[in-house]
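FW: tagging you since you asked about this chain on Friday. Here's the raw sequence from the shared folder, copied in full. Didn't touch anything.
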Amino acid sequence: MTRKKKRKSKKGISNLSNTILSILKKDRNQAFNYKQIAAKLGVNDASSRNQIIKKLAQLATNQEIEQVERGKFRAIVNTQYHTGIVDIGMKGSGYVICEDFDEDVFIASNNMNKSLNGDEVEFYVYKRRKRGRIEGEITQVIKRAKSEYVGVIQVHSNYAFVVPDNNKMYKDIFIPINKTFKAEDGDKVLVKLEDWPDNADSPYGKVIKVLGKPGEHHTEIHAILAEYGLPYEFPYEVETFADNLDTSITKDEIAKRRDMRQDLTFTIDPKDAKDFDDALSFKVLENGLYEVGIHIADVSHYVKEGTVLDDEAYERATSVYLVDRVVPMLPEVLSNNACSLRPNEEKLTFSAVFHINEKAEVKDQWFGRTVTYSDARFAYEEAQAIIENNTDYEFSSRSQSRDQINTEVPKEVSLTEQAYKTKTEIAEAILVLDGLAKVMRHKRMKDGAISFDKVEVKFNLDKENNPVGVFFKTSKDANKLIEEFMLLANRKVAEFIGKQSPKKTFVYRVHDEPDDSKLASLQGIVSKFGYKLNFKDRKSISSSLNNLLKDVVGTKEQNLVDTLAIRSMSKAEYTTHNIGHYGLAFDYYTHFTSPIRRYPDVMVHRLLQHYLDSGKSANTEAYEDKCQHSSDMENLATKAERDSIKYMQIRFMEDHKDEHFLGVISGVTDWGIYVEIIANKCEGMVSIRDIKDDHYAFDQSLYALIGRHTKNMYQLGDEVTVKVKNTDLVKKHLDFILVD
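HL: got it, structure written out here
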């Protein structure tokens, strides 16, 4: 017997009653004899077997187990079992989140029963409370949340271990030497779990991909994608299928559609965009109304159900936007070419066309397939320049002369890096649409919408993808112009189907009201900065949050408060069951405007056309499953995007190790404080062990660390000066030390 097995044997025998009960409860419908239990414990000596026999007899006498036939025992089930999802802490203990309980159920590390973070598990709750909290024990894993992990391999002569990057994976993974995929010691690898034997301390797995050397750029980016099960290349058969698609626009196809090629049409997108999935058309009607068309790439024309292309798009469900690249949902032949509404090209589109008055009220609407021609392409900065150059323009004034419109785009923001003048009719269209968008936005805010204009951190990268600078992306009038018309199309499409009778199955984007406890927590934190919230009713909550978000603009705590406010909200998701969208203050809402990068939009296009063709209601259960999958993949993509930003922040800070930075305390825990640097939004941790001037303790009520002798306080929101202590690209950790 190895030393490891001997240690485990002693540990198992010392707490033998509980161990036997756990084995019997796990397979509570099966009877075991002492030999089978000994095998599960990994013991085979006579002394251990005798102790097992004695314990079985004691447990039967105490009526904790029953003897169902000679020498065979089974657990007596007098406990109610529940199911829930495991949330594991860093030290191997954790909680089970279960709808049967108002609070999460604590699970000690020795009661995890081989469950891993995110697993669906069966568990029972102890009758007693421990330290005031509900405590339980996991009896079995119903469904694994994931089976693949990224980590660094340690190769020994006869075996290997993979140390996972994920700090919630509390066990190293044992790899038989013949399943290392020829990985070298120290390589970053992707490993698949295969088994977790009853008598093994660690799960067993096999290496399925060698990602490269830790710390190298492409290794770490591919590791982020692999950790969340996200692909970074298309299978050969999918690329081949896409390349062989007929993307020509025929006369027969045009004849089936509303021809809008003569209408003034243009796109406004980020300057580095490669796919343009939406365009706006504009004209003034004889009755004085504005006709505004929101034209979306007709992806569903090319991506047909039942094809390998559709299967791949569904599995991906979304494009993933990392700091240095986009991992697209569709192959490039579609996303950047056939489905991209590039200037001076005819495109097949799916459109929402509205007749709108000067109060931004929709007087008429039309939905259907179209063919369009984009007259111009603008970057947001170019459209913004036109808006800012014409601040005196009144879009509702009929007497205003076109000659007064300034059409110049300065070279500082021009895509061509040369100053130029756009066509007067296009500049006028931008100005009218901007005016209408402002009216629509004002109405949304009045109706209770919440304005989350969170600052986005972006990096300037050199040719080797090294971060050479940080800049902040903010939303200006041109961004909000596009946002409002996309919101209009999404809302009106959802209303068009949602209000039909009899009710039809549809894909909605919903957002529930915020949780009271999360709002109370937010109030507790922002009060430290002198802000107050009013939770009297739904409208006062929205108004209060908007005032808060407006008041923090430009303050040191802005990013922190913006982040906390967003976290206090429920998560938006896709579903066939409409409950409205709280954050936007819409009763009906869907996603119609980005089918190049979101699969739910493809489903919406298909359903909308199906119902326009008088089709019967689609299968709700099938679409609900697709909605759940889309929400899950969106969540994974968001996590990958955040990890890539964190990774790039650490790379950026590696080159600034000797500099001092002013930061804001963005989090306080019993192990230290988190500090966000004001100048670049990079966040790192100052360990409590590295604050040397006193012994500090965490005061949860004050969100502060307080010195035992000096009473010195480090509180949430305080400004501190820090410098880099350590950067770890592999674990994505950034450690600071206080300078003063």
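FW: Confidence is low (pLDDT under 50) at residues 1-14.
HL: agreed, and The CA atoms of residues 377 and 581 lie 31 Å apart.
FW: great, closing this out.
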